[in-house]
Amino acid sequence: MAPLAQQLTRPAVSLRSLTRSFDGRTVLDSVDLDIPAGQFTALLGHSGSGKSTLLRAVAGLDHQVVGSGELTAPERVSVVFQDSRLLPWRRVLDNVLLGTEGNKEAAERGRVALAEVGLAGRERAWPSELSGGEQQRAALARSLVREPELLLADEPFGALDALTRIRMHALLRRLWERHRPSVLLVTHDVDEAIVLADRILVLDEGRIVLDLTIGRAHPRSYRDPLLGEYRERLLAALGVREDVPSEDGLVTKDSK
Amino acid sequence: MTTSTAAPAVSNAKTKQVPETGRTWRTGRTGRTGRTGHRRSLAPGKRLPATRLIGPAVFLALWAAASAAHLLDPGAIAAPWTVLETAGQLWTDGTLTTDVLTSLERAAYGFAIGLTAGVALALTSGLSRIGEALIDGTVNLNRAIPTLGLIPLFILWLGIGETFKIAIIAIVVYIPIYLNTHAALSGIDSRFVELAEVQGLNRLTFIRRIVIPGALPGFFVGLRLGLTGSWLSLVVLEQINATSGLGYMMFQAQNYGRTDIILVGLLIYGVFGLASDSAVRLIERRVLSWRRSLSN
Ligand SMILES: Nc1ncnc2c1ncn2[C@@H]1O[C@H](COP(=O)(O)OP(=O)(O)OP(=O)(O)O)[C@@H](O)[C@H]1O
Ligand SMILES: [Mg+2]
After folding, report:
1. Is B26 on the interface with A (CB under 8 A)?
2. How many beta-carbon contacts under 8 Å exist across A and B?
3. What is the mean pLDDT of residues B171-197?
């Protein structure tokens, strides 16, 4: 392991004029981005702004997509999807171990990872026997067991209820502090991004329109008034203004 | 670029249009099960033990009652006790044992060959594009021809002995096993394909851990259809051309107007069919114990 200072100067992910298009429609328009090793980054944007496309490109999942540009990512990358994507025919521990060597030592690491996400004792359960939040925690354990240098997460808590989501935020942050992977968290939840990330990117029309560093100490409270400033800037970048009511209470930039 | 070597999948420096790689997997319904238990009220409820026997028992009771009340012509349909008596007689003669064993042997051979062929062809065709090009169309063509229509040709080719019967049974068995297994193999959820890529599975592990277990429910559907098919074709084959076996026994009985013997034959076919289907269901429930479906 390199010393922390050195880690932070070495980019884990580096994109140079990354362009992606579907059927002639450009979704990512020449994106440049460096994510330093060990940084917790959140990616915000409207639905359809290309967040998932960017994440899939970094994950190496965008075969058959037309695109150009340069892309560097570490060797060990883990992805957490919106759905837990556990194989229903494998028990929880076997799901966590999917893709590992399958020896004793790996199984032990799997048990440790499950314990870390609070699922100790559920190793032999079937995925269908877990709650939604537990399934997502198992998915988190599966991504941790590979000791990723880069953790990509595409709205990992999108399907969870608000209370579970808050718990998962704390868990994810704790896990990050312990393992220090670089994180790219795609979300449409501004508060989630503010509470969790050290840096927030806003993607709009295929470009990064805001790159915000959040300099507040952790753990952050959802009620911290200083975080409200960030929220306002982010909402402005997203084209949402809270102060001018319209029929639906919000004015979006789409109505320009 | 500052980072060291990266995995080929993600380090496409100068990423360009990537042509289609490998095969694409259509999203299917397999792999989504295991969540059906949530709305309990829509499920038919817990199954009582041996409830499947209630229907046959009622039927038997009606048959016995009608016979006792002389509502049935004993020449057309013998009474249940007559059938049992005849069965006992045939058993002590030893002819029934021979006939049953012959029939069982034919069904078992045909079924084993059909099962092996169906699974082997489905795997070849489901896991390789070349295999699919060669096999899938051919099997579907074979399916379009009524198998029993092949009997005259098979008799000419294979002679009138056991071989042609076993061949016909094997064909009847392999088709549903192939079709259902192949559909399940190519219907693996594309999300799981993505997962396999993310987890860095190699092709062999992907097939072993994801494709095959995901296709097992479909395979079992085919297996049960094939099993039914093997009994069905046995009835036909043994009545057309045989010198022993249950069908032969019934064919002979027809000449002498012995409905009781015919009913003994039908009864045994029924018992075997039900027993073999139950055995497969039992195995299925063991193997697919991860499923929380309506049948639990
Ligand atoms: N496979 C595809 N084929 C065609 N168009 C696609 C494909 N995948 C994405 N797109 C299009 O690319 C655009 C960006 O999609 P993407 O999934 O990246 O959005 P997103 O920011 O993740 O949105 P959301 O927040 O709703 O998940 C959308 O307009 C979408 O329709
Ligand atoms: Mg998305």
Report:
1. no
2. 123
3. 95
Residue A149 DSSP code: S
Tokens read off for A201: 């990117």
pLDDT of residue A84: 93
A62 to chain B: which residues are within 8 Å by CB? Answer: 18
DSSP secondary structure letters along A216-233? PPSSPPTT-HHHHHHHHH
The CATH number of domain A1-76+150-163+177-256 is 3.40.50.300: yes
B120 touches chain A (CB under 8 A): no
B28 or B76, greater pLDDT: B76
Options 1.20.1250.20, 1.10.3720.10, 3.90.950.10, 3.40.640.10; CATH of B78-287: 1.10.3720.10
Name every chain B residue with its beta carbon within 8 A of the beta carbon of A146.
Answer: 199-200
Which CATH number fits the domain A83-147, given the four candidates 1.20.1580.10, 2.40.128.490, 1.10.8.60, 3.40.50.2000? 1.20.1580.10
pLDDT of residue B29 exceeding 80: no
Position B58: which residue type?
Answer: V
A204 close to A238: Cβ distance less than 8 angstroms: yes
d(Cα A18, Cα B65) in Å, to the nearest integer? 82
Q: What is the pLDDT of residue B292?
A: 67
C-alpha A156/C-alpha B81 separation (Å) is 68
Rounded distance between C-alpha atoms, residue B1 and residue B5, angstroms: 10
Q: Which of residues 182-211 of B touch A (CB under 8 A)?
A: 191-192, 194-195, 197-201, 205, 209-210
Domain boundaries, chain A: 1-76+150-163+177-256, 83-147
Tokens 């058993």 belong to B91
* Confidence tier at A220 by pLDDT (50, 70, 90): confident
Residue B31 has pLDDT above 80, yes or no: no
Q: Is the ipTM of this complex over 0.95?
A: no
Question: Where is A8: in which H helix or E strand?
Answer: helix A4-9
Please indicate whether, in this complex, the C-beta atoms of B290 and A83 are within 8 angstroms of each other: no
pTM of the shown model:
0.79
**Nearest-CA neighbor of A50 among A62, A38, A37, A64?**
A62
Inter-chain touch B5–A128, beta carbons under 8 Å: no
A54 CA closest ligand 1 atom index: 18
Residue B8 clears pLDDT 60, i.e. is over it? no
pLDDT at B113: 97
Query: Which residues from chain B sit within 8 angstroms of residue A54, using beta carbons?
Result: none
Indicate which atom in ligand 1 lies nearest the CA of residue A51. 21
